[in-house]
Design goal:
Layout (H helix, E strand, L loop, with lengths): L9 E6 L15 H14 L8 E6 L10 E5 L3 E4 L3 H13 L16
Parallel strand pairs: 1-2
Antiparallel strand pairs: 1-3, 3-4
Helix pairs in contact: 1-2
This protein binds FE2/S2 (inorganic) cluster.
FE2/S2 (inorganic) cluster binds next to loops.
Length: 112
């Protein structure tokens, strides 16, 4: 049996979770809008579909203190972002060209 290529080359998962009032959570920091913007940007760039990039919703990723967060696989690179231009940079640099956006990386010790 020969190894087959992954169906998708990369996934980006956006936490869209909302936690109780007073607790950090991604939905209170623009995660839904960022997810939708990313989906549209990936599609516009011609990167969606088999062998390319899949943009997915996720529940809590347990790193809420860094909200809003997203993670890209297979590299397992975690990001935190502020606005749509940050998302554009992740799409262009990482999802399209495989270059990690160092300035948006989530610190390793950020948890819930
Ligand atoms: S609410 Fe987003 S990581 Fe927990």
């Amino acid at each position: 049996m020969t190894a087959s290529a992954s169906y998708f080359n990369r996934h980006i998962f956006f936490c869209l979770n909302e936690r109780a009032e007073g607790q950090a959570s991604c939905s209170r920091h623009g995660a839904q809008a960022a997810f939708e913007h990313c989906k549209a940007s990936v599609s516009k760039a011609g990167l969606s579909g088999k062998g390319q990039v899949r943009v997915n919703k996720a529940g809590c990723l347990d790193r809420c203190a860094g909200a809003p967060v997203a993670v890209v696989y297979p590299e397992a690179v975690w990001y935190t972002y502020v606005d749509q231009s940050d998302i554009d940079e992740i799409v262009e640099s990482h999802l399209k060209n495989g270059q990690v956006v160092e300035r948006l990386r989530l610190a390793d010790d950020v948890g819930r």
